[in-house]
Q: What sequence folds into this?
């Protein structure tokens, strides 16, 4: 596809007005997690799960990091340890601590010598301004094959930026959504590494991959909160838009898409919950912007990948129900297996499991992968949960950025090859 065509579309749907109208945020004190610990708790019954997850209603003391149908990872404030231990006894489960002091981990997240990495080198995590500046550098360095786009504006008025890489007309399209959950920093680190690889690699296979697809990559979708996780609270999950009905702030953006919204307990209607779906679908400007943009381009997009962490999973539709499966579920599993096998063959030997979101985890409605599949006719659609499975969780040390990114590249290469084999990579826009 020609770059000017995309630019015309972008100008049509997302006029930027140059002027910055960022709302002023009060200088908030940086949230600290001194002596907060994270535990792995395996349970056998849904009653046990329910009883443990109840603890997360005590916001200041407990935060859920991960939850699937056999175990959860729970962060516990030091002052809440007695309550936590009592609950473990009542529920009759044991907990294994894997992070003793979350603040200590946060303080050492960028262990690599950060001064030596003044330019992008993926040895540390970059903030939004650094990522934006780097995108500009890449746009300037590769003007013939890249174009910048803006999905729209965030709640606080920031541009949500993306990059299109297109080497030739007629390519099938791959859309990568990253950092919808802002605390999952490994996602934008991986997305930017991928952009760099697609533009600069001399490897024959990577060149083939880069040049035979159109890549729409949004490294940071949840821009406001990405800034917030850098400046104020490293572990904030939701958006930062206040609620009209509660003092609790924010919506889970990955429950906010208009596709089986709020069905089957796949999200919460309580603004204080981490999976609050919002007052209505698309209440969050970031998700509305993503929806408007993808809706217009959907005939050019064959594959939707939404980057998340952590758990090492590929999750296909459906999220809203574990009772039904998409009509091409067997294909989706075959493609996911290709990703998983390819990653496993790397020297790191990392294991990715796969299945449908609701099947492998629990009902989760209104997520990107379901919406793209159900509403946008993008039949190859996954959530990818990156490293790890519960050693560092969200605070994955920067030393793991490159290994994780290499796995993602190899995985995507296999995923697209398998999709092509199954007939999903025909350019959609040659249809009338
Ligand atoms: C964390 O725990 C250590 C060891 O118990 C203690 O010395 C320290 O004061 C605690 N830090 C904070 C900020 O509470
Ligand atoms: C607690 O769980 C263990 C197995 O995990 C079981 O053997 C034991 O009977 C349980 N105790 C109670 C009081 O349910
Ligand atoms: Zn996530």
A:
């Amino acid at each position: 596809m020609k770059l000017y065509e995309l630019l015309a579309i972008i100008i049509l749907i997302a006029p930027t007005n140059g002027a910055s109208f960022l709302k002023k945020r009060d200088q908030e004190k940086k949230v600290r997690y001194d002596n907060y610990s994270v535990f792995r708790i395996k349970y056998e019954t849904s009653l046990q799960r329910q009883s443990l997850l109840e603890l997360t209603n005590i916001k200041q003391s407990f935060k859920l990091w991960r939850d699937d149908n056999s175990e959860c990872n729970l962060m516990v404030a030091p002052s809440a340890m007695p309550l936590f231990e009592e609950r473990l006894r009542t529920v009759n489960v044991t907990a294994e601590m894997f992070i003793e002091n979350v603040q200590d981990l946060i303080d050492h997240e960028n262990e690599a010598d950060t001064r030596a990495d003044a330019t992008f080198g993926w040895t540390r995590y970059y903030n939004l301004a650094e990522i934006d500046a780097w995108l500009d550098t890449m746009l300037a360095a590769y003007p013939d094959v890249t174009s910048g786009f803006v999905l729209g504006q965030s709640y606080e008025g920031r541009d949500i930026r993306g990059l299109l890489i297109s080497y030739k007309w007629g390519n099938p399209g791959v859309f990568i959504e990253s950092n919808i959950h802002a605390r999952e920093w490994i996602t934008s680190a991986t997305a930017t590494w991928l952009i760099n690889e697609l533009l600069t690699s001399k490897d024959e296979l990577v060149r083939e991959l880069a040049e035979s697809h159109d890549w729409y990559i949004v490294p940071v979708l949840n821009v406001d909160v990405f800034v917030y996780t850098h400046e104020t609270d490293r572990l904030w999950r939701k958006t930062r838009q206040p609620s009209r009905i509660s003092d609790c702030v924010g919506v889970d953006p990955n429950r906010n898409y208009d596709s089986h919204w709020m069905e089957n307990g796949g999200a919460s209607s309580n603004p204080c919950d981490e999976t609050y779906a919002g007052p209505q679908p698309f209440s969050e400007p970031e998700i509305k912007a993503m929806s408007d943009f993808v809706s217009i381009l959907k005939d050019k997009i064959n594959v939707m990948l939404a980057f998340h962490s952590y758990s090492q999973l590929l999750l296909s539709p459906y999220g809203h129900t574990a009772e039904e499966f998409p009509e091409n579920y067997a294909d989706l599993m075959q493609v996911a297996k290709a990703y998983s096998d390819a990653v496993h063959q790397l020297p790191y030997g990392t294991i990715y499991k796969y299945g449908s979101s609701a099947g492998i985890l629990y009902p989760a409605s209104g997520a990107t992968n379901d919406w793209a599949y159900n509403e946008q006719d993008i039949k190859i659609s996954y959530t990818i949960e990156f490293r790890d499975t519960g050693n560092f969780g969200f605070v994955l040390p920067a030393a793991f950025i490159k290994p994780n990114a290499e796995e993602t590249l190899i995985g995507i290469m296999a995923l697209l090859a398998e999709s092509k084999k199954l007939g999903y990579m025909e350019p959609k826009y040659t249809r009338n």
